[in-house]
Every structure is written in C-alpha cells, then in structure tokens.
Amino acid sequence: MRAEGDRVASKQLEEAEAKLRRFQDAIAAGVDPMAMVESINEAQADRAAAQGALAAANEPAGMTDAEVYAMIDSLGAIGAALADSQPGKLARLYRDLRLDLRYDNEKEAVYATTSLRVNNAGVRGGT
Length: 127
Description:
Number of strands: 2
Structural class: mainly alpha
Strand order of the largest sheet: 1-2
Largest sheet: 2 strands, antiparallel
Strand content: 5-15%
Order of helices and strands: HHHHHEE
Helix content: 55-70%
Distance between the termini: 42 Å
C-alpha cells in the first residue's frame, strides 16, 4: 500500500512540475503572468502537497515494543544504574543516553526525548 502511495505522489509531483514548466514557457512566449497567477499558485500547491506526501512516505516507521525492549536490553546495566537513584549518577546516565526529560505541570506528564547513536564496529584483515 505504501508503494502505491509513493507512485501516486510521484505521479502528482510529475504532473504539477509539468504544469509549472508549461506556465513558465507560456510566460516566456509572452502571456501576461498576472493572468496565470491563480493557476500557478494551484500548481505550486499541488507540487508542495506531492512533495510532502513523498517525504512522509520516506520517513522511517516507528519501532515496535519488542524492538525498544531489545535495544534497552542491549545497553546492559541501565537497570542497575536506575536502581542507584543518586542524582549525580542519574544525571550522568541521562547525559550518556542523551536523554532529555521535560515535565508538563498542567498535564502532569513527563516527555522524554533522546538522540540515538549507533556505533558500528568492523573487523579488519583478510579472510
């Protein structure tokens, strides 16, 4: 279904850009640009919508619960670090994880964000 959406958005983008090229050619040929403002604006809106649809379709899908738990498990001693509730150690853990916590007093909610880092290690040498 996602691939079909990509094809539709690509086709819409192609059509909008073709319209804009035709309008530019018409203006170059001497047509009054003021007479085409509404049509050009519509074509530009169509192009922007198609570009937005393509950008949204190319965003990575969210992670499943199992993937999140597996990632946490792979980090090792986080449970032990969280159990040791000394503020300095927790602050260091949050910093190392690039964890940012924001408390919304009105909603009585905590919002957590992080910047994930991936370290790839490779083996060098002959096989």
